[in-house]
TrEMBL record:
<dbReference type="InterPro" id="IPR050696">
    <property type="entry name" value="FtsA/MreB"/>
</dbReference>
<dbReference type="InterPro" id="IPR043129">
    <property type="entry name" value="ATPase_NBD"/>
</dbReference>
<protein>
    <submittedName>
        <fullName>Type IV pilus assembly protein PilM</fullName>
    </submittedName>
</protein>
<feature type="domain" description="SHS2">
    <location>
        <begin position="15"/>
        <end position="183"/>
    </location>
</feature>
<dbReference type="InterPro" id="IPR005883">
    <property type="entry name" value="PilM"/>
</dbReference>
<dbReference type="InterPro" id="IPR003494">
    <property type="entry name" value="SHS2_FtsA"/>
</dbReference>
<dbReference type="Pfam" id="PF11104">
    <property type="entry name" value="PilM_2"/>
</dbReference>
Length: 357
């Protein structure tokens, strides 16, 4: 069995969640305090030079590993074991049904045999892992097994980055799975969440990832090519700035008076249109006809006015998700700063949660 770096396996504490995205790297360290209470011990981020990561692919390992080294040092942690994420588009997942009662070795052989039917690459080019979900719904003699596979070089690139930064990758997860794990912890604290259809829109720099869940199960997933870089490019064109200058001024709110009317308002309209289109596509391509709760996450989630326009256009109860809701905060965490940054840490938080199985 070619292992995907314990994609589903148990992790060994202590463990950092390390989210490598298009725009930068985010680190989260969680610990348990008291009776089953989690504490956000540390979090930090570091941007990448433009082009270091493109469409989930590592284009410059040296630049990315150097940023990882800086974020680790900045955080103040001493933990060197990390959980990393893979972009959903880089991983093939498939739920299969196998006979119950097989040993681990027998399962491995059977999973490899089944995987060859679903993976369009030679198995020696692939990192593969599996997880037994539980008894099959319609047969007491069978089990549901989730298999996951990715091209070896994509996994090895991320492992190499961790190693170059002096860290050790012990868990490899799928970014969308990590985000859902973090969101599920938050929604489990909400009253009346049972039976609700929940949509998560993670709006990143280049891509918006949509997940729709019912009682913890994913019923729909999709990516759309829309993100915050579109607004940055508009700023570049309008004000003659470099991309990095435009991005910095956007984050600092240091833009001319006409920015809101001329650039921000059209961007927000476009973002709301993307969200409503995605919801309509969900309705027309699944048996479901409602969404009860909509969450925004990602680096763009807190752009002023975005939540209001999405709620107005969709007519759905909407909120910006904080993955650290209900956690206590470590002494180095600044609460006010965290409030403005938390939605961007959904994946990193979900990866850090792997410490607790």
């Amino acid at each position: 069995m070619v292992n995907l770096g314990s994609l589903f396996g148990q992790s060994s504490p202590p463990l950092l969640g390390l989210d490598i995205s298009t725009s930068g790297v985010r680190l989260v360290e969680l610990v348990v305090v008291g009776k089953n209470e989690l504490r956000l011990e540390r979090y930090a981020s570091e941007p990448f030079p433009r082009g270091a990561v493109v469409d989930g692919n590592i284009e410059n390992i040296e630049q990315v590993s150097e940023a990882v080294r800086r974020v680790w040092k900045k955080s103040g942690t001493r933990v060197k074991l990390v959980a990393l994420g893979m972009p959903p588009a880089s991983v093939i997942t498939k739920k299969i049904i196998l006979p119950a009662g097989m040993s681990e070795d027998q399962l491995e052989v059977q999973v490899e045999s089944e995987a060859s039917q679903y993976i369009p690459f030679a198995l020696d080019e692939v990192s593969l892992d599996f997880d037994v979900i539980g008894p099959a719904a319609n047969s007491a003699d069978d089990i549901d097994v989730m298999l996951a596979a990715s091209r070896k070089e994509k996994v090895e690139d991320r492992v190499a980055i961790a190693e170059a930064a002096g860290l050790t990758a012990v868990v490899m997860d799928i970014e969308s799975y990590a985000a859902r794990a973090a969101l599920e912890r938050v929604t489990s604290q909400m009253k009346g969440s049972e039976g609700q259809i929940v949509a998560l829109f993670q709006i990143g720099a280049q891509v918006t990832h949509i997940s729709v869940m019912l009682n913890g199960e994913t019923i729909y997933e999709r990516e759309q090519p829309f993100g915050g870089n579109q607004l940055t490019q508009d700023i570049v064109r309008s004000y003659g700035l470099s991309f990095d200058e435009a991005d910095a001024k956007k984050k600092a709110g240091d833009l001319p008076d006409n920015f809101q009317a001329d650039l921000l308002a059209p961007f927000l309209e476009n973002a709301a249109l993307e969200v409503t289109r995605a919801i309509q596509f969900f309705y027309t391509s699944t048996p479901y006809t409602r969404i009860d709760q909509l969450f925004l996450a990602g680096g763009c989630a807190l752009i002023p006015g975005l939540l209001d326009i999405v709620a107005s256009r969709t007519k759905i109860s909407s909120a910006v998700v904080s993955p650290f809701k209900g956690m206590s905060l470590g002494p180095s965490v600044r609460e006010q700063q965290l409030r403005s940054e938390a939605p961007a840490y959904l994946v990193a938080c979900g990866l850090a949660l792997r410490r607790f199985g």
